[in-house]
Amino acid sequence: MSTKLFAFTSLLALAASRPTISTRRAESSECWQTNPGTVFYSCSNGYKGCFYQDPCSLPPLSSTGPTPTTPPPTTSSETPVEIHELTKPRSFNIYVLSEAQHNVQDQVGHVDLNKPEGSAITTTNALVFDNVPAGAKNCKLNWRSTAPNDENNFTVKGSGQAYTRQLTGFPSKTEIVSYDGLKKYQDPSAEWSPSLDFTGWTEQPTSHGGPSLECGSQVALEIKGSDVGEGENRVFITLTETNGFYLTYEL
């Protein structure tokens, strides 16, 4: 046997001895949008698609077996975790830092975190997600952007760093939503978390994870932009089904 033929035969034997492997891609945005919580797998045993669990260690697919995109069977008796989302939260932009200013809910939901040039003051925003189901857990704030149109706008100027702080509640319809009006719902021990950064935003459809939040029938939080530098810092986002902030939770 020639040296070349021996080497080729050895490579075939080595490949045959390797276990079934996955060419997994990290959280395909397509999988996340169609089946939240799934990840894309392409396995040498025939499984290819969006799955909750790695199917690459299962027996090879046969003509009578499940289709490649069907989630693989599991021996666990646990029900698969379902991830749900709430979009288009109520939004209140706190433009004037005083009790006299009554910040009404935006007619067209948006977030405007603005530090004008030469100013040291940045506006804040309050977001409220209502009707979170009982039993919801692992609540998380997320954000996404899509191609701009008449409804979707996503603009970042200067620093895209933003900070969040969860509120313990939110003003009722008879209370004033303002800088001072929110104070009674602020946890004195809660610090602003630098959990959002919009510097790398893109007009291409994409999703980004944000801070974890305590679940409840109503989830409310404050967001503020960066006050660094002398120039303008501004993050402006319209809130639609496909653009801006949304809440995910498990049931």
From TrEMBL:
<keyword id="KW-0732">Signal</keyword>
<protein>
    <recommendedName>
        <fullName>Ubiquitin 3 binding protein But2 C-terminal domain-containing protein</fullName>
    </recommendedName>
</protein>
<feature type="signal peptide">
    <location>
        <begin position="1"/>
        <end position="17"/>
    </location>
</feature>
<feature type="region of interest" description="Disordered">
    <location>
        <begin position="61"/>
        <end position="81"/>
    </location>
</feature>
